[in-house]
Write a structure and sequence with these properties.
By secondary structure, this protein is mainly α. Helix content is 50%, strand content 11%. It is globular. The structure holds manganese (II) ion. Manganese (II) ion (MN) binds at residues 73, 77, 121, 206, 208, 210-211.
Length: 245
């Protein structure tokens, strides 16, 4: 990460004061959780993206997501997207310096795929927490779910149905659409397709087979239903407040 960003992350909320970081008085919004940045993608001194740490132990989400799945998913799969994004950006730089744009369309596709994969996984880890700490939607998040979906229960029904029906590999996504200023439930195919431009992901569920196959095999529906037991609703609420501000 850049020096400015690094210093900002180090001093964080303490230096700026909670009032500047949060639009709603009394709502503490830390910039990181157990060393993983909440609202940014970490970079190293060379400006390359780095894999953020999981904000909990590999086995924290059991029995709903097993430790081996978390280890492979975070350490191997997510890291592959980080490397792929860095590789695409480096190749773009080489192309610019050489004035050779023969492969630039392929590089743009790689940046979209790996960049979206990196962003969605970064949000996904933070969206989850051990079941005993999951909580419920409250405050602004609850009110906005009521406004845009008619309540928490109808939202959960729409969200889980949407995720279960993703064709092939992809995601179910609750996002804030900032121009229309409303919550939307979308699908992503792979990581980058079917979005609305500008939509900010708040709650995402990875429905690639690598996210659930060791425990659930072909039963994606059971995985999606169980995911709702380990949603970190406080994290979703923080993301909504951050997106709306
Ligand atoms: Mn994944």
């Amino acid at each position: 990460m850049s020096a400015n960003r690094r210093d900002f992350m180090k001093t964080g909320a303490a230096a700026l004061g909670a009032s500047l970081l949060t639009p709603y008085a009394g709502f503490a919004s830390p910039l990181e959780r157990n060393g993983a940045p909440l609202f940014s993608l970490a970079t190293n001194d060379a400006g390359e993206y780095v894999l953020p740490p999981l904000p909990y132990a590999y086995d924290a989400l059991e029995p709903y997501i097993d430790a081996q799945t978390m280890r492979l998913h975070h350490d191997i799969h997510h890291n592959g997207y980080v490397k792929g994004l860095n590789s695409a950006l480096a190749a773009m730089k080489t192309a610019r310096e050489a004035g050779d744009y023969d492969l630039i369309d392929r590089l743009a596709q790689k940046a979209a795929f790996h960049g979206s994969g990196h962003i969605l996984h970064t949000v996904f880890w933070q969206n989850m927490i051990s079941a005993d700490k999951s909580g419920n939607p409250s405050g602004l998040l609850k009110r906005q779910l009521e406004k845009d979906f008619g309540g928490v229960a109808p939202f959960i029904q729409q969200f889980t149905a949407t995720a279960k029906k993703v064709e092939g590999s992809g995601w179910g996504i609750l996002a804030w659409e900032p121009l229309g200023r409303r919550l939307v439930v979308l699908q992503a195919e792979k990581h980058q397709n079917l979005t609305q431009w500008g939509a900010i992901p708040l709650l995402v569920i990875d429905v690639w087979e690598h996210a659930y196959y060791l425990t659930y095999q072909n039963k994606r529906g059971d995985y999606v239903d169980n995911f709702m037991n380990i949603v970190n609703w406080e994290d979703v609420a923080q993301r909504l407040e951050h997106a709306m501000s």
